[in-house]
From TrEMBL:
<feature type="transmembrane region" description="Helical">
    <location>
        <begin position="237"/>
        <end position="260"/>
    </location>
</feature>
<keyword id="KW-0675">Receptor</keyword>
<dbReference type="Pfam" id="PF13853">
    <property type="entry name" value="7tm_4"/>
</dbReference>
<feature type="domain" description="G-protein coupled receptors family 1 profile">
    <location>
        <begin position="41"/>
        <end position="290"/>
    </location>
</feature>
<keyword id="KW-0297">G-protein coupled receptor</keyword>
<comment type="similarity">
    <text>Belongs to the G-protein coupled receptor 1 family.</text>
</comment>
<dbReference type="InterPro" id="IPR000276">
    <property type="entry name" value="GPCR_Rhodpsn"/>
</dbReference>
<keyword id="KW-0552">Olfaction</keyword>
<keyword id="KW-0472">Membrane</keyword>
<feature type="transmembrane region" description="Helical">
    <location>
        <begin position="91"/>
        <end position="110"/>
    </location>
</feature>
<feature type="transmembrane region" description="Helical">
    <location>
        <begin position="26"/>
        <end position="53"/>
    </location>
</feature>
<feature type="transmembrane region" description="Helical">
    <location>
        <begin position="272"/>
        <end position="292"/>
    </location>
</feature>
<keyword id="KW-1003">Cell membrane</keyword>
<keyword id="KW-0812">Transmembrane</keyword>
<dbReference type="InterPro" id="IPR000725">
    <property type="entry name" value="Olfact_rcpt"/>
</dbReference>
<protein>
    <recommendedName>
        <fullName>Olfactory receptor</fullName>
    </recommendedName>
</protein>
<keyword id="KW-0716">Sensory transduction</keyword>
Length: 316
């Protein structure tokens, strides 16, 4: 295959998780179900927080934005996969592939940074409870949210822009269900040294710095909780962090699992299946974690569902 010239853009083919026709319908039903659960579950979280004034606190403010980010994160990959299965087409345009890579990175970074902001919120709540409302004021929350969006949108640019300089063959087969940057770089016909350097720098900075912030916050939280004399006080302090800690563990655990699976095996199909964990499963699980482990959220969701199902509930 000849490398493309600048007058003709390449065509990308997403091979998906399986090329067997009998499995395509199963994958379509499975991913459609997972996607709908993810979207409606996170929408319920957002609506519950908006409609109940007792949830208008910094923690739930960031949680609502995390739910929105999760919807967008999953929507960058799954709808295109479902469309390709339904139309029996594997094609994604060059512009579509670059756009998908950019927004996939944006919302992945946004998830990571929002979890860091939520860790800081829990740190202030546990370690400085008397000054919590003063420190975590609406202005600071808005500034933190704006900062996470700014870093995410700008942080995703270097990887996407450096991809534009690469030359590709006329038709490129990607053994994945979306345009994942490492897979695309492996299929380039030109030198990818600069791209790999940018990839490692961005991934390192955007992964290491937020994780360090989260670990620092929880080290201070643990230190403060251990100084509490009563067992009931310790449980109450830890319970305020349980849901967030579970989501953080799930997020970084799945990312680590995907990295290890790609390190131990070179099979692209294995990497594609592993990617399902953090692209689909993690955003789907977040609403369940917060609704099952959080008493206030369970109460708000129950009221919201009652008000949606009956006129009498809405009057209440």
């Amino acid at each position: 295959m000849e490398p493309r010239n600048h007058s003709r853009l390449p065509v990308f083919l997403l091979l998906g998780l399986s090329e067997k026709p009998e499995i395509q319908s199963v994958l379509f039903g499975l991913f459609l179900s997972l996607y709908l659960v993810t979207v409606f579950g996170n929408l319920l979280i957002i609506l519950a927080i908006i409609s109940h004034s007792h949830l208008h606190t910094p923690m739930y403010f960031f949680l609502a934005n995390l739910s929105f980010s999760d919807i967008c994160f999953t929507s960058t990959t799954v709808p295109k996969m479902l469309l390709n299965i339904q139309t029996q087409s594997k094609v994604i345009t060059y512009a579509g592939c670059i756009t998908q890579m950019y927004f996939f990175t944006v919302f992945g970074l946004l998830d990571n940074l929002l979890l860091t902001a939520m860790a800081y919120d829990r740190f202030v709540a546990v370690c400085h409870p008397l000054h919590y409302t003063v420190i975590m004021n609406p202005r600071l929350c808005a500034q933190l949210l704006a900062l996470t969006w700014l870093i995410s949108t700008l942080g995703a640019l270097p990887e996407s822009l450096t991809t534009l300089r690469l030359s590709f063959c006329a038709v490129i087969e990607i053994p994945h269900y979306f345009c994942e940057l490492p897979e695309v770089l492996q299929l380039a016909c030109s030198d990818t040294f600069i791209n790999n350097v940018v990839l490692y720098i961005v991934t390192g900075m955007m992964g290491f710095v937020p994780l360090t912030g989260i670990l620092f916050s929880y080290s201070r939280i643990v230190s403060s909780v251990l100084r509490i004399s009563t067992a009931g006080g310790k449980y109450k302090a830890f319970s305020t962090c349980g849901s967030h800690l579970s989501v953080v563990s799930l997020f970084y655990g799945t990312c680590l699992g995907v990295y290890l699976s790609s390190t131990w095996t070179r099979a692209s199909q294995t990497g594609a299946f592993a990617s399902v964990l953090y692209t689909v499963v993690t955003p789907m699980m977040n609403p369940f974690i917060y609704s099952l482990r959080n008493r206030d959220m369970k109460r708000a969701l129950r009221k919201l569902l009652c008000s949606m199902s009956s006129p009498q509930g809405q009057q209440q």
